[in-house]
Amino acid sequence: MLAGWIRGEPADPAPAGLDVRQTGRMGLRLVAAGCAAVLFAGIVAAAADGQSAGPGPSVAARSRASRAAHNPVPPMPRVPRAAPAPRAARLLYPLPARAVQPEPCPAPPIPLGPAGPPLGPPRVAESAIPWPALPPRRHVDLTPILGKGIWLTLWPGSTLDPARVVAQARAAGLTQLWVRTGGSDQGFYGRRDLAGLLPAAHRAGLAVIAWDFPHLSDPAADARRALAAARLGVDGFSADIETTAERTYLTARRVAYYLALVRAEVGSLPVIATVPRPTAERLRTYPYAAEAPYVDVFAPMVYWSCTEPGAAVAGAITALARLRPVAPIGQAYDMGSEGGRHGLPSAAETWRFLDVARRMGAIGASLYDYESSGPQSWRALAAYPWP
User: Fold this and answer.
1) Are the beta carbons of 364 and 147 closer than 8 angstroms?
2) Cα-flanking dihedrals φ and ψ of residue 285, to 5°?
3) Cβ distance 234 to 170 under 8 Å?
């Protein structure tokens, strides 16, 4: 379990019990002085069903004291109780979830297309980017990331039906919607979508987290889109920081500078780093540690393809939990076009992903993405009993 970020799990509710003490049955008997009495008394005891979440441990308990003032651990928030998610009538699969092997696997090979053009020089040279100072101590409420969620990949010309999305999310017991609002290539375009979605989502008790795809050619320009989203009333901001294969100018200096600016722009909103799944190779090359001081949560993209989903998410949480709380993103799309397993994940795979994530201490989990997902993903997502 992800020790430190969540202190234990809420106990399973005790079954309601009935303690009835009753006298024996007595027959009616005629007597000269009167009649017999029947004594009947009952005591009914019912167990309460509830939960609480306490704050995580101090930074000093898990890192060097010299960094404690700059790299605080956000306290665990209390789960909101205003709009409780519907509870599944029965489990879709047994718990704990059994390991499941994705099929059909291995993935059929696909011919490699032509390599894209090499990255040209960035708009802002590496030498012109300062190393940022570590951020001051802060209090960040992580409630928007708790529980289950779904990602929406919207584009400047996308059509969004807020009422439909919100109704489907509530019916599935979700607590958050992750909505693409911009990127380096498109700029910020989320104003219209957020104007319709935010009021409907908030009335339904759903958090809305804006996400953005920065290429980091000009980190300061990328960071300004976070401020644009924050001003519209979103509940959090997630930076999708990809690798050079996705044409990102990925260096520790650029990432730290960009996230320091985002941190300053959004104030007390939670900042989430959406990052590649930390494989052994990526742990050597990707700047997870450079991102950690400026973000509040890591959201690794655990798209398992032919990997056992429980093993994939367990590895990601183990690697990142020492840095920040983790809210992994599971696969709900067909990876065939990018060399992965063909077809959508099964309900059993999604169930296994969610269960291992929760048991490993993830504060939440979500699926990517709404537009590509099938009924099997939604069936597992809705039925899984995330506290």
Assistant:
1) yes
2) -120, -20
3) no
Q: What is the DSSP string of 153-220?
A: ---TT----HHHHHHHHHHTT--EEEEEEEETTTEE--HHHHHHHHHHHHHTT-EEEEEEE---SSHH
**Residue closest to 48 by CA, chosen among 17, 85, 83, 80:** 17
- The answer to whether residue 41 sits within a structural domain is no
Among residues 50, 80, 333, which one has the least CA distance to residue 207? Answer: 80
Task: For 290, list phi and psi in degrees, rounded to 5.
Answer: -70, -25
pLDDT in tens, 215-255: 999 999 999 999 999 999 999 999 999 999 999 999 999 99
Taking Cα atoms as reference points, which of 310, 319, 323 lies closest to residue 365? 310
Q: What single-letter DSSP state applies at residue 372?
A: T
Locate 179 and state its tokens.
């909505």
Instruction: Tell me the average pLDDT across 364-380.
Output: 98
User: How far is residue 17 from each of residues 11, 12, 24, 51, 261, measured CA to CA in Å?
Assistant: 17, 15, 22, 20, 56
Is 57 part of any domain?
no
Number of folded domains in the chain? 1
Question: Quick one: residue 197, left, alpha or beta (phi over 0 = left, psi -120 to 50 = alpha)?
Answer: alpha
Assess whether pLDDT exceeds 60 at residue 50.
Answer: no
For the cut 80, the answer to whether the pLDDT of residue 118 exceeds it is: yes
pLDDT for 114 equals: 75
Residue 59 lies in a domain: no
Q: Is 137 helix (H, G, I), strand (E, B) or coil?
A: coil
Tokens of 53: 């979440």
Asked, for residue 42, whether it belongs to a domain, the answer is: no
**Separation of CA 24 from chain center:** 58
Share of the chain above pLDDT 90, in %: 72
Q: Which of 319, 325, 322, 310 lies closest to 356, judged by CA?
A: 310
Does 7 have pLDDT greater than 70?
no
In terms of pTM, does the model score above 0.70?
Answer: yes
Sole residue written with tokens 């989502």 = 201
State which H helix or E strand residue 354 sits in. helix 347-359
Q: Which residues span the domain enclosing 376?
A: 130-383
Burial of 125 (0-12, 13-18, 19+ CB in 10 A): exposed
